């Protein structure tokens, strides 16, 4: 990993208000950022390798009457061959994953090939008869300058790759100025100045790209953490709602939740004019169970009774613990006669169910009161009616249904 990149990432993360991680815990960002940088470099190099022929092809067309044909053709074919190799290496780079092995030799080969490309392209100024015409030399010098500037976008994610290309572009002109005396000093100085300026702008652009990639990574992590936190909050909220709605012993709805369901069903019935019934159940002689067998046995009786009640209901029905040994059932879309039949089945099922407790088996019965909701009736009146029918069942000797 590039030490410069690591230092840059750490400095940026230390000052990022979105990041609360310690610097020592930030190493997991570095492989992903390095992969992203290589992918960007590969994609942009692939694009450049696919389109650079427009640049040197135009230059070759402009030089068709200046440079001898075989030399010009050799120059074009050399550039095309180098760019083909660049395209192959760029394709490998842009497919990189974090676990891709052997990337250091590949990147070294990329930089060497870019140096070769820049040098081959820059030799346009040394082709026969180019330097003899100031206009032609200036025109193609500007073409090289344009290629150098465009390279900032394509190669700024790797400063050594850009330095290799831009250095190769300017090197033939400098050699022509200093060694061959075929390039005017002004052209050579301008080339060197542009080279130095472009290094600065490439470094600045590279830092910006790294900052964007890093910010994207951090933003994705923050977004993922927020999504996970939101999901956990939703789960916690759901659990809290359940805890506030469920009787912990019997797992039936508690009285408050049951009242909400009854109010909701009453509102639906008022809109649709469909019947529903309420069934009140009170376990017979439950106090004697607690007194004779203990509260653990009483809890076992309540749990088993709740299981029997819920096992007799449909998915649209509701069971709730009203308080103590008293339960309430809501039978949706059910007539009074059907509700009485259902209540009788529940009474028989409970009476036929032995309940294991410490010391043996218990059998428990229940008294049942049934009431149907009538249009115009209040929910309080319905509950009072069902409760009255329950007391009628108790008065009739218990273990029976009254409506």
Could you describe the 3D structure shown?
The protein is an alpha+beta fold and 403 residues long. It folds into two domains: 224 residues, no CATH class; 148 residues, Alpha-Beta Plaits (2-Layer Sandwich), CATH 3.30.70.270. The chain contains 13 helices and seven strands. The protein is rod-shaped.
In short:
β2 (318-323) and β3 (326-332) form a beta hairpin.
What percent strand? 5-15%
Extract low-pLDDT stretches: 15-24
Identify the strand order in the major beta sheet. Answer: 2-3-1-6-7
Question: How would you sum up the major sheet?
Answer: 5 strands, mixed
H/E series, N to C? HHHHHHHHHEHHEEHEEEHE
| Whole-angstrom Rg | 43 Å
Q: Count the beta strands.
A: 7
What class, by secondary structure content?
A: alpha+beta
Average of the residue pLDDT scores: 87
**N→C terminal distance:** 82 Å
Shape: rod-shaped
Q: Kindly give the count of domains.
A: 2
Tell me the number of helical segments per DSSP (H or I, 4 or more residues long): 13
């Amino acid at each position: 990993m590039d030490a410069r990149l690591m230092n840059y990432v750490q400095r940026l993360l230390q000052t990022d208000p979105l990041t609360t991680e310690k610097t020592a815990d930030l190493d997991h960002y570095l492989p992903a950022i390095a992969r992203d940088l290589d992918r960007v470099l590969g994609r942009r190099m692939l694009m450049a390798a696919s389109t650079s022929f427009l640049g040197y092809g135009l230059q070759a067309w402009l030089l068709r009457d200046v440079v001898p044909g075989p030399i010009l053709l050799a120059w074009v074919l050399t550039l095309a061959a180098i760019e083909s190799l660049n395209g192959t290496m760029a394709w490998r780079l842009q497919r990189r994953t974090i676990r891709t092995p052997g990337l250091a030799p590949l990147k070294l080969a990329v930089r060497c090939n870019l140096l070769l490309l820049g040098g081959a392209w820059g030799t346009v100024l040394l082709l026969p008869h180019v330097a003899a015409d100031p206009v032609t030399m200036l025109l193609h010098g500007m073409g090289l300058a344009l290629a150098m500037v465009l390279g900032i976008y394509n190669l700024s994610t790797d400063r050594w790759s850009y330095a290799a290309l831009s250095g190769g572009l300017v090197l033939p002109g400098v050699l022509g100025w200093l060694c061959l005396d075929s390039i005017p000093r002004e052209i050579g100085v301008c080339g060197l100045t542009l080279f130095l300026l472009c290094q600065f702008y490439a470094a600045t652009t590279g830092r910006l790209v790294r900052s964007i990639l890093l910010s994207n990574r951090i933003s994705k992590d923050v977004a993922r953490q927020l999504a996970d936190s939101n999901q956990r909050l939703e789960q916690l909220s759901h659990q809290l709602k359940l805890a506030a709605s469920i009787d912990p012993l019997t797992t039936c709805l508690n009285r408050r939740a049951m009242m909400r369901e009854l109010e909701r069903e009453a509102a639906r019935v008022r809109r649709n004019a469909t019947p529903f019934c309420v069934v009140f159940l009170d376990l017979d002689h439950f106090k004697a169970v607690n007194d004779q067998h203990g509260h653990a046995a009483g809890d076992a009786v309540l749990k088993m009774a709740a299981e029997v009640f819920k096992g007799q209901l449909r998915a649209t029905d509701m069971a709730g613990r009203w308080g103590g040994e008293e339960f309430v059932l809501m039978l949706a879309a059910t007539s009074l006669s059907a509700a009485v039949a259902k209540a009788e089945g529940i009474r028989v099922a409970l009476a036929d169910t032995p309940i294991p407790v410490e010391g043996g088996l218990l059998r428990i019965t229940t008294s049942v009161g049934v009431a149907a909701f009538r249009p115009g009736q209040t929910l309080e009146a319905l509950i009072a009616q069902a409760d009255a029918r329950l007391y009628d069942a108790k008065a009739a000797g218990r273990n029976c249904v009254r409506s």
